[in-house]
Amino acid sequence: MDIKDMSAEQRKEELARLADAVKAAKAETKTAKARVAEGKDAVKDAKTAEEKAALKESLAALEAACQAATAKVAEAVAREADFRAEAKAIEDAEKADEALRSKQEAASTMSAMQATYDSLSAEAAELLEQERAAQAA
Fold first, then answer.
1. Model confidence over 84-110: pLDDT tens digits?
2. DSSP classification of residue 5
């Protein structure tokens, strides 16, 4: 669903989902980094050249997985930041629209009040004039 079609509650839920995705990606990266550290330790502790070569291949795969996890974090953070910025822009536009509606409603109310005042003033002036005419007669 496009963010412009989402309600405020749906945007909030989507932000929570994106934040959870960032947390999950960071946890995955942390795990990958720990595996790389273990792989490096294993390479250091290798007894034979063959074992060391095999462990280095394994370490290269672990490092690639760690880089992929790091890229996933960056992508998740960017998605969350973009969504957050777009959601803020939509909320700001909604607030501006509400302020404009309130201003227009206030102007309409003031106009109606002024018309009522003018009508009552004219009626009072007419009644005053009638009273003076009655007193003069």
1. 999 999 999 999 999 999 999 999 999
2. G
d(CA 3, CA 83) in angstroms, rounded, equals: 8
| Dihedral over alpha carbons 53, 56, 61, 62 (to 10 degrees) | 150
* Cα pseudo-dihedral 117, 122, 128, 133, rounded to 10: -170
* 48 three-class SS: coil
At 15, the amino acid letter reads L
Amino acid found at 26:
K
SS (H, E, C) 44-106: HHCCCHHHHHHHHHHHHHHHHHHHHHHHHHHHHHHHHHHHHHHHHHHHHHHHHHHHHHHHHHH
Q: What is the value of pTM for the model shown?
A: 0.71
Helix (H, G, I), strand (E, B) or coil at 119: helix
CB-CB contact of 35 with 65 (8 Å) = yes
